[in-house]
Design brief:
The chain is built from 13 helices and 6 strands. The chain has helices spanning 2-10, 21-38, 45-61, 88-103, 107-124, 126-136, 153-160, 166-179, 184-191, 193-202, 224-229, 253-272, 290-309, and strands at 81-82, 85-86, 233-234, 239-240, 279-281, 287-289. The longest helix is centred in the last third of the chain and has 20 residues, at 253-272. It is mainly alpha-helical.
Length: 310
């Protein structure tokens, strides 16, 4: 383990710079050794977790292009196979992540390295992404419970998306977003809009669309259970909810107007007292104070009026 720590300090900036062919060959050889480390178990589970933790930290430092060797060994009897590739190393990383999630201790230090490694590997290697998605985001069947409720990997990761630690929640959200090929509608489908809003706001995607990553255009596969329930799924909570009775049923148009004006008056008071700040989704897909948007619209109307006069 001491050797892994020393190598980590030596390679800490490697993935942030270009490497030549000779260096790449050395890093590929190191990645092969680290793959063997992932497949190795020590005398106790705690010691194995510590050993794998140092291995993951070092793998994070290596250039992504050199990590393809994690998938190149032949598929042997008993190996985890996917698309004809040996996924033993990726499966162990996923199991390592699951165990760290269950421990729930020092999440920033214990989770962010493995989440970062899996995220960037999925972004760079199509086969890795597809395998991870099959394990973490299989086709939806349970749409009766919120995405964060349960003990599957998806449930645990969605819970982290609202974690108090910013690094943890960003890493968890980014991992799931990449597994959804940075497609907003697919991401919301698996996490619920309420959980997804933080990442979407940060990336200017509150209005929908896709992230900046380049992915193939394969269609998402829906289960029969999801298709049947889709019309009744609340996109905010990500689950089927019973339809609530209409609170305005039986009211006259005058009563409805009175209640609407009362609600507007309450929001106006809260806004003026700076208890809340009304926001809208701007042209850049990010939240903008509504006052600024109204002012910009007024200025634009004024400019248009001046040009019409000219």
């Amino acid at each position: 383990m001491e050797v892994l720590k020393i190598l980590f300090n030596i390679t800490f900036d490697t993935n942030r710079r270009q490497v030549d062919e000779e260096e790449a060959a050395l890093y590929r050889h190191l990645a092969v050794v680290l793959r063997h480390c992932l497949l190795t178990h020590t005398e106790s589970k705690e010691r194995t977790q510590e050993f794998h933790g140092h291995t993951v930290n070092l793998l994070v430092n290596l250039p992504l292009a050199c990590l393809d060797v994690l998938l190149t060994p032949r598929v042997e009897p008993g190996s985890v196979e996917y698309m004809g590739l040996n996924m033993d190393a990726v499966a162990i990383l996923l199991d390592f992540l699951d165990k760290r999630l269950d421990r729930g201790l020092k999440l920033r230090e214990t989770l962010t390295p493995v989440l970062s490694l899996l995220t960037e590997s999925a972004r760079f290697h199509r086969e890795t992404r597809k395998f991870l998605r099959s394990r973490v985001l299989p086709p939806l069947r349970d749409v009766r419970n919120r995405p964060e409720v349960g003990e599957t990997l998806r449930n645990k990761l969605v819970r982290l998306m609202t974690h108090i630690n910013t690094d943890v929640k960003h890493c968890a959200a980014d991992f799931l977003f990449v597994l959804c090929k940075e497609n907003v509608s697919r991401f919301v489908k698996y996490t619920g809009y309420g959980n997804a809003a933080g990442l979407l706001a940060a990336r200017g995607l509150l209005g929908g669309g896709r992230g900046e990553g380049e992915y193939s255009e394969e269609e998402d596969t829906d289960t029969e259970e999801y298709k049947e329930a889709k019309a009744n799924i609340n996109p905010v909570t990500g689950r089927v909810e019973e339809k609530l009775p209409d609170p305005m049923e039986g009211m006259t148009e005058e009563q409805k107007e009175y209640e609407a004006m009362k609600l507007i008056s309450m929001f106006d008071k809260l806004s003026r007292e700076q208890i809340i700040q009304p926001m809208v989704v701007g042209c850049d897909g990010k939240l903008t104070p509504i006052d600024e948007t109204v002012q910009q619209m007024a200025e634009q109307i004024s400019l248009n009026s001046d040009s019409d006069i000219d």
